[in-house]
Amino acid sequence: MQVNQDDRITPQQKKAGANGIAILAVALLALLLGGAYYYISTDSNEPQPTELEPIPLPATTPEEPLPTEAPVPEPEIVTTQAEMPPEPQVQAPEPLPPLAESDDFVQQKIITLADGMAIAPLLIKQNLARQWVVFVDNLAQGELARKASPMKGPQQAFSVTDITNKTYLNPDSYHRYDMYADFVAGLDEQQLLQTYRELSPLFETAFDELGYGELSFEERMQQAFKTVLAAPVIEDPIELTSISVNYKFVDPKLEALPSAQKLLIRMGPENTRKIKAAVRKLQAALE
After folding, report:
1. What is the pLDDT of residue 8?
2. Do the beta carbons of residue 10 and residue 151 sit within 8 Å?
3. Which residues of 103-115 are buried (b: 16+ CB within 10 A; e: fewer)?
4. Less crowded by CB within 10 Å, the N or C end of the chain?
5. In b/e form, how buried is each residue of 1-15, taking b as 16+ CB within 10 angstroms?
6. Per-residue confidence band for 31, with pLDDT thresholds at 50, 70 and 90
7. Residue 174 confidence (pLDDT) above 90
8. How far apart are CA 58 and CA 246, in angstroms?
């Protein structure tokens, strides 16, 4: 682990409840139609008139026609059809630009996702889609492609603490990554998934350039998720040893971890939990 190393972390990306809403609408419509049918077709419980014996009419001359009563029109039953819910307005997705011209498009999507968080200064606006794909590809293998990161690293310096002739990772260093973790944790899951689906063709095109054959970018990203979720959460002080300008974990089990998981350890337990929680939600949504 290097001092002042520009460690990078890339934000990861709920299923929409459209099916549930549709089922609820159908059930409500069926209830309304059923209620209307019951109201119209149910027999009345009021007693029906009984037949009376005919009353003899007075004799009349042929010139005097019998009085007749005008027929009483039967009441007209008006049925009303249950109002259908308005059709949802589905907006057509924006047309995707070519991969080589997609930086502005991808950047705007990320800024919209940030919902007011000042994430734009952290973005490296150069081949954003390609950089993201390469970064995820390396992350799936446990490695960190620092030069391919689509985001800038933290500006605060990495720091250590010396206690009784031992060197420990300074917990204040964890806060270098608060903005990254808060950005990931604060993302709207439904909007995030929708944005990923919109950008997915760009990612797949960029991933095809890496020459993996039938392996898809989404499959590769799921492998990256597993790498992130396998990282340990360390609550205890973390002892370090220094060689020249580099620091290493004294614990051989920690030192043997993939670089990506070491980065999560350097982010601190709270930030690691935030990122893991966000990854689990997206992982479940994609599955």
Report:
1. 35
2. yes
3. bebbbebbeebbe
4. C
5. beeebebbbbbbbee
6. very low
7. yes
8. 126
Give the start-end residues of each E strand in the chain: 160-163, 166-169, 239-243, 246-249
Q: Is the pLDDT of residue 138 over 60?
A: yes
DSSP secondary structure letters along 250-286: SSHHHHTS-HHHHHHHHH-HHHHHHHHHHHHHHHHHH
Asked if the model's pLDDT at residue 18 lies above 60, the reply is: no
Of 60, 70, 87, 102, which is closest to residue 201 (Cα–Cα)?
A: 102
Q: Largest Cα–Cα distance in the chain? A: 137
Provide the 10 A C-beta neighbour count for residue 63.
Answer: 5
- Which one-letter amino acid corresponds to residue 19? N
Query: Which of 191, 182, 171, 194 lies closest to 122 in space, CA to CA?
Result: 182
Query: Residue 216: CB partners within 8 Å, gap ≥ 6?
Result: 204, 207
User: Cβ of 79: how many Cβ atoms within 10 Å?
Assistant: 8
Report which DSSP code applies to 248.
E
Residue with tokens 């350039």: 209
d(CA 114, CA 118): 8
Residue type, 175: H
With the C-alpha atoms ordered 241, 268, 124, 281, is the resulting torsion angle positive or negative? positive
pLDDT at 103: 92
Give the Cα separation of 169 and 269 in Å (integer). 13
Q: Give me 10's structure tokens.
A: 């890339």
Residue 277: pLDDT band with limits 50, 70, 90:
very high
Among residues 274, 287, 182, 169, which one has the least CA distance to residue 228? 274
